[in-house]
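W.,

You were right to be curious about this one. When I first looked at the sequence I had no strong expectations either way, so I just let the prediction run and decided to look at it fresh. Below is the sequence, 621 residues in total, followed by the output.
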Amino acid sequence: MKKIAFLAPNEEKLNRIKNLLQAYNDEIVFETGSLADGVAKAKDLIKQGIEIIIARGETAYNIRDTYPEIAVVDVPISGFDLALALEKAREYGDKIAVVSFASMIRQVECLESALGVQIKKYYLRSRDEVDDVIDQAVREGANVIMGGYSTCRAVAKKSIPAVEIYTGDQAYVETFYSARSLLKTIEFERRKTGVIKAVLDNAYEGILSIDENGMIHSINPVAQRVLHLAGEPVGLSIRQVWPELGLEHVLRTGAASHNQFFKVRGAQLLCNKVPIKDLAGRVIGAVATFQETTKIQKMESRIRKEFYAKGHVAHYRFADILAYDNATKNVLEAARSYAETDANVLINGETGVGKEVFAQSIHNAGRRAKGPFVAVNCAALPAQLLESELFGYVGGAFTGANKEGKPGLFEVAHAGTIFLDEIGEMDYVNQGRLLRVLQERAIMRLGSDRIIPVDVRVIAATNKNLSELIAQGRFREDLYYRLNVLKLQLLPLRQRKKDILPYAKKILEQIGADTGRKVRLSAGAAKVLERYGWPGNIRELRNVMERAMAIGRRNVISAAFMEQILAYDDVTAAEEGQGGEAAVIRKALDDCGGRVSETAERLGMARVTLWRKMKKLNISR
């Protein structure tokens, strides 16, 4: 769609401009129109969607005055065009007067200074003044008059010569280029304004901004509703609209203010106030964002419900479990059969053996796979908080409780599985409540007397010996038998050595996929891994592989380098405080007698890399 229009005073000039801008004719609407006729044509052009009108002199002035919403670009008079007109005027006399609008007069003043000549100037404010101003110039001694098309046409009726100031071809071309650039700027600003308006109109909070004078610059619909404003108060002082806000203080100090509470017509608002600064850091305004506290609470409640409904997902499946050792194969076969039932499962094993991986895999292979998988670490929460998390509470059940209440994780896990990790760490009181839930298949929120039925499968896990805890009176025997319907005993990694290398290689592949590196284990490094005791099991194996990838720079992990990595945990506390990598490098240097080349070879990195690391970590030979 064409958005630029050229208004020429007559057909002759119109054809001339068309020829000059022939390459851009598909971007321009060409029309004839001068003075009042030009203003009428501008009205039609605006209706057609034209955004920039190019015109000359009085026509441009009148259009701009009548339609301030449209961009009007004047065709300028160049110094060369004025010089030509002045040279011709001198042929008629030396008392030259210019009768024109201000834009042309300014150009003449520049020419006077450059040529050292004196030209009498007469300003026009409207076309109706032309005859009177010409008569005034003649009375004051002018023997030749310079001006535009309207001036020369009026002078032609009098007994005095006139010289029209013509616009050169280059001026028309340059004006079009200026209009084109202006159009791009307008379109960019319109896009930016559209984005800002969309953000303001669709924001959840009220947004109000002021300029450096404290006058309201913008306000969104939410702010208008919260402040009970009938119309937009743009242009009013912030003191008239919300005097208690104190946004002018932000203007004066340039300091932001967060989480302030205000009360407006009975509504409690939480408000943030920040300064608006230009690129030079000067404060040019301020903005306040605010929201009703009741809305915040409702939104939090909705988010929690969405999170509970969609956020509890089991990611692992049996395919993620590597089983090369016969012991692992037996456990995996048992777990697959457990997935076919809904009975409770107790998983026992050391830290890091993958108890949750098995729990998620059982869930995903069973009939509850489309339901939620909710994991709870019973050791991570204090007894009272664990109680409210597991069973939920009603509004006002205890100090600090959400007034709308909160569903417990057993409710969230309805039609799915709840995984109770570190069950051996649960306090005795909560063990009793858990036992009741397992027996009744129903929960009661804290502070409530209403029974809520739940359909949940329970998978519990522990690294403790529950029989010993029962003997010590720290774990309920009846709860143990409720949980221990189906049992999985996961062996530590040191007792299933055939699983070590497959897991190590898989972890290296996973890390390599993220970092873009391909690293493999040497035969010697593989033997080092198989000899190691792995007290932290698969979790420790992953940490070791990540450490090897982070520190090493070679594509093959050597036996010596792997020994250094595994020795990391034996470093003294002082060395540990200086960083694990530094400790590994220091120990390797000691073992190699301070020889850098040999140390680099042992660590599996280039000599230059080792020097750089030593310098960075302040390690001397």
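Here's what jumped out at me. The first helix runs from residue 11 to 20. And, maybe more interesting for your project: The chain has five domains: 4-75+172-182, 79-166, 203-292, 318-491, 497-616.

Coffee later to discuss?

I.
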